[in-house]
């Protein structure tokens, strides 16, 4: 049962890795910042952070210092990806707007404060064991990291609504509209996963892996995210011909 639940998470990691490689190849041709930011976000948060988290869970019986170091490494990598995603949202949807720059800086500052609080209080170890949390720091950390995907999803859905109006006038091909929607759903599923993890921590105090049903929900969200992101970046040829 647990192996079936873990499979979608592995698929999400593979999808993130493949997309990040494609974006790096695109960035090598264009040398544009958005491609680099999104590649960093997908590789760091979608692949590498999950890989370190897997190692962390396998090494739970290890020494306290090893678990603390791996937990800090995981959160640092994840935060790098979230910062890149925040930067991508600001650069693509609100480039040059002062309020967007201020909002992005605020989100990044909250990320740094949340991780610092988790480290200073020792709650960072709750990512590697089954002890319940003793304060609000882990949920706050999850909320801070989930803010990046949440903002990205909001901007995608808002932009999709704009594209639909343009599509009705024949200005935009259906393929573009659908790919933006798929990306929004994929990143939105990631944001919902953060919200679900927060709710689970507040209710039970422990991580998702301590309940099979919770792991199943997380796996379902990972599957939705993987399929939608894959469609957004690699739509089938038959669909591209039909929707272009």
Sum this structure up briefly.
The protein is 82% helix and 0% strand. The protein has helices at residues 2-30, 33-58, 64-93, 98-121, 137-168, 174-204, 212-233, 237-243.
**Secondary-structure arrangement, i.e. CATH architecture:** Up-down Bundle
Shape designation = globular
**Radius of gyration, taken over Cα atoms and rounded to an integer in Å:** 18 Å
State the end-to-end distance. 41 Å
Category by helix and strand content = mainly alpha
Largest sheet: none
Contiguous uncertain segments of 5+ residues: none
How much β-strand is present in the residues? under 5%
- How many domains? The number is 1
Average pLDDT value? 92
The tally of strands reads 0
Helix and strand sequence: HHHHHHHH
Number of helices: 8
> Which percent range fits the helix content?
over 70%
What is the CATH C level class, in words? Mainly Alpha
CATH topological fold name: Rhopdopsin 7-helix transmembrane proteins
Overall description:
By secondary structure, the chain is mainly α. It has one domain: Rhopdopsin 7-helix transmembrane proteins. It contains 8 helices and no strands. Helix 1 packs antiparallel against helix 2, helix 1 packs parallel to helix 7 and helix 3 runs parallel beside helix 5. The longest helix is centred in the middle third of the chain and has 32 residues. The termini are far apart. The mean pLDDT is 92.
Can you lay out the helices and strands and say which pair or pack?
Layout: H1 2-30, H2 33-58, H3 64-93, H4 98-121, H5 137-168, H6 174-204, H7 212-233, H8 237-243
Helix pairs in contact: 1-2, 1-7, 2-3, 3-4, 3-5, 4-5, 5-6, 6-7
């Amino acid at each position: 049962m647990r192996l079936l639940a873990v499979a979608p998470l592995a698929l999400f990691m593979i999808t993130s890795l493949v997309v990040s490689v494609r974006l790096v190849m695109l960035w090598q041709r264009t040398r544009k910042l958005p491609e680099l930011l999104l590649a960093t976000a997908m590789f760091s948060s979608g692949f590498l952070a999950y890989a370190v988290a897997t190692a962390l869970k396998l090494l739970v019986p290890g020494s306290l210092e090893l678990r603390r170091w791996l937990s800090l490494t995981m959160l640092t990598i994840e935060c790098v990806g979230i910062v890149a995603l925040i930067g991508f949202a600001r650069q693509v949807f609100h480039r040059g707007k002062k309020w967007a720059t201020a909002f992005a800086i605020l989100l990044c500052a909250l990320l740094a404060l949340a991780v610092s609080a988790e480290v200073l209080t020792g709650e960072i170890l709750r990512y590697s064991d089954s002890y319940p949390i003793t304060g609000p720091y882990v949920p706050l950390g999850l909320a801070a990291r989930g803010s990046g995907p949440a903002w990205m999803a909001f901007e995608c859905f808002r932009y999709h609504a704009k594209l639909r109006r343009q599509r009705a006038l024949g200005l935009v091909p259906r393929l573009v509209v659908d790919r933006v929607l798929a990306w929004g759903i994929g990143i939105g599923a990631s944001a919902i996963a953060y919200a679900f993890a927060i709710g689970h921590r507040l209710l039970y105090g422990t991580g998702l892996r301590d309940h099979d049903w919770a792991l199943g929900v997380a796996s379902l969200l990972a599957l939705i995210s993987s399929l939608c992101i894959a469609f957004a970046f690699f739509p089938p040829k038959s669909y591209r011909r039909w929707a272009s």
